Structure formats: C-alpha cells, structure tokens
Amino acid sequence: MAFVRGLKRPIEIFCKRRMNTPVHSGLGYSAMACKGAYFPDFRENKCPFGCNCANAFCSHCISARRYSTEVSPSEQMNLIKQLRERTSAPIKEVKSALVDSNWDIESAQKELRKRGIVLASKKASRTAAEGLLALAQNDRKAAVIELNCETDFVARNEIFQYLALSLAKVALLVDGTRQPSGALHVGPELFEELKINFHHPKLSGERTVQNAITEVAAMMGENVKLRRGFAMSAPSYGILSTYLHTSPQPGVGRIAGLLSLEVEDQNASVDALQHVGSELAMHVVAAKPLFLTKDDVSTEAMESEREILKSQAESTGKPQMAVEKMVEGRLRKYFEEVVLMEQKFIVNDTLNVKTLLNNLSKEVGSPVKVGSFLRVEVGEGLQRLESSNAGEPLAQAA
Questions:
Q1: Edge-to-edge strand ranges of the sheet holding 37-41
Q2: pTM for this predicted structure
C-alpha cells in the first residue's frame, strides 16, 4: 500500500503532462487529450489544407480530408492509369499532378498541360537530330515534311507519327518557293500558325500547328521540332512517284524519294510509267544523285572536282598527257556517281538511267523524261558534338 501511495503523485504528474501535450498527426494538425475527449487544435490558426481559414471545423477542410482519405490505393492506381493513357506523361509526373489536384483527374490533366508547356520551352534549345519523314500525296501533288526529336524511341511513338502525318497533309495545302531541282520548299514558318482539327485520343480538337508540336513535346519529354518541308507537283502529262525507306507504317520513314516522269503523249500507257517511276524513286533513295544531267553540275563543283582529281593523278609521277587522260576518266566516274541520268540503274546495273528512259519511250510510243527529283533524309546537316562529355546536346552542323 505504501508503494502504491508513493507512486500516486508521479502518475498524476505524468497524466497531466500527457493530457496537455499536443499529439501531432500526419495531416498537419494536432489532437489534444482532455478528459477522455479530443478536438482539433490548428497551430497558429493556419489551415493545413491551404484555404487560410481560422475555423477548425471549416467545411472545405473537412470535405478535403474526407475526399483524400476516401481514395483507396486501388482507385489511386486506376486514376494514374487513366491519366497516363490520356496524356502519355511519365508516371512520376502523373502521380504528382493527381496528388496536387486532390486526385481530381480533370484538374490534374490541366496541370500536366501547364507543366508540359514550361518543360517543352526549356527543351527547345536542344537540337533534335532523330525523327521521321512523313509523306502525303493527292492527284496533283506530293509533300514530305521532317519532324525531329531527340531519340529514335520517341520517333517510334504512335502519337509522334500521327502528328507527322497530320503535318504532311497540311503541307499539301501550302504554296512553297520553287527550287532549282523543281521541288517546292515549304518552310515551317509557312504553316506553324495554321489550325488543324486533330482526331486522336491523346491529341484532339482544333489547335495551331505550333501548339500541337509543343503539346506532343510535353508528352514525350523531348524537344520536338518541325524542321523543313518540300512539295512536288505532278506534271500535266505523266506521273509523280514516291518511295519511303525504313517505314514503320505507311506514310512515314527515314528516307524519301520523289520523282516525276513527263511524257509528251497524254494517251501513253500509265501502267508502264508508274512501274518505272516507282523503281526510279527507289533508285533516287539508294543512289543519292545530286544532279539530273551533266549540264546541271555547277561550274564550281566541276572545277573543285577537277582540281582534286588532277592533284591525285600528278602524285603518281606519270607524264602530263597521261595525267590529263586520268583526270577525264575519273570525271566520267564522278558523273556516274552524282548525275542521275549517268548512274547505273540499281534494279539492272547493265544499263544506266538514260538508257532505261530511252527503252521506256519506245515502249509507250512517246518521249519520256525525268521532270524533277528529290531525296530527303532525316538528320541531313545535323550531327552529334564529338565530346568526352556524354551529356553534350546535339548541334547543327554549319
């Protein structure tokens, strides 16, 4: 009994201390024990739910607490999955936006779009050298655009490819500036402000070309850039042929060849023209011609090549007459490499393109000639900086 009476006062002191000490919870408010009951005690009258109220029983705070606690882990996972499917944003960003929006999926989606535009603007300084070409064609015209990104992983993404195909269709409607090759140059500035109606689950509704690119860049987490575009008109009499190499789906690829065949007789066999035209478009992709005929080779290019060949021939120590013959022979070889009409036909290397067209003219009963051709490859003129630092960005070659 004496032992119990001795403990009575320390126990009372202990209980009073515990009764008057706030018990902190993870929700940012405290519960203070008082005669077996408790009530919320908001420290310094600050609402932990951001509404700046001084009322411990604020209806907004109570409903917010109730809502956040009512979202079960399985529901949270379902909301994360739904928002991820809608936006293709990284899971970390999706969860963060949902938490910040009290698991309201519509508010979270808006928040992701706001964040994405900011991130896309930060990444815009990084040059993108990967990507795809997209090709669109109608009865009168063909257009090809180059949409760049930073990695081939993004280039394989279905949304990226959908955007590229949509931009190619827009390029068909834009009038470009004519180039010496006969193709039309369609610069991005000509249609970045044009509006398109997109019909994709993750990219829908009307928006400008530039806004659509920015939105896809936010989804992908990379710099996405419309670099250039070209168009080619079909001849009055003849055909316009196209070919895409390394094509993950119809309409997109990494290398494109466009070529027009003109025929004098409008009643000439179209089937024969289309067959040869398709093979020649493929030939343009494989053989990489720079000029249509020898007459198209610029004087500067000729003089530069002749000087190089002469220097190589003179290094052999042979007489001047022999050197001249060597230079002329190597010039013919140079023409076979860079001039379309002089190149060996890739389908049948026993004849060149000029001979192929002569044979086709006899077959259709009317002269046939190449009107114009174009070869475009992803990343032409772009290269990676040679640096020991693996984190170096891409840079455009001068």
A1: 23-24, 30-34, 37-41
A2: 0.66
HEC profile of the chain: CHHHHHHHHHHHHHHHHHHCCCEECCCCCEEEEECCEEEEECHHHCCCCCCCCCCCCCHHHHHHHHHHHHCCHHHHHHHHHHHHHHHCCCHHHHHHHHHHCCCCHHHHHHHHHHHHHHHHHHHCCCCCCEEEEEEEECCCEEEEEEEEECCHHHHCCHHHHHHHHHHHHHHCCCCCEECCCCCEECCHHHCCCCEEEEEECCEEEEEEHHHHHHHHHHHHCCCCEEEEEEEEECCCCEEEEEEEECCCECCEECEEEEEEEEECCCCCCHHHHHHHHHHHHHHHHHHCCCECCHHHCCHHHHHHHHHHHHHHHHCCCCCHHHHHHHHHHHHHHHHHHHEHHHCECCCCCCCEHHHHHHHHHHHHCCCEEEEEEEEEECCCCEEECCCCCCCCCEEECC
Q: Using only the alpha carbons of the chain, give its radius of gyration.
A: 35
Contact between residue 262 and residue 237 where contact means Cβ atoms under 8 Å apart: yes
pLDDT per residue, tens digit, the chain (398 aa), is 444 455 445 545 444 444 444 444 444 444 444 444 444 444 444 554 455 554 444 544 444 444 444 778 888 888 888 877 766 667 777 788 888 888 888 887 777 666 664 454 555 556 577 999 999 999 889 999 999 999 989 999 999 999 999 999 999 988 877 776 678 888 888 888 889 999 988 888 999 998 899 889 888 888 899 999 999 999 999 999 999 998 899 999 999 999 999 999 988 889 999 999 999 999 999 999 999 999 999 888 888 888 888 888 888 888 888 888 888 888 889 999 999 999 999 999 999 999 999 999 999 999 999 999 999 999 887 754 333 333 333 333 32
Task: Give phi and psi for 90, each to the nearest 5.
Answer: -60, 150
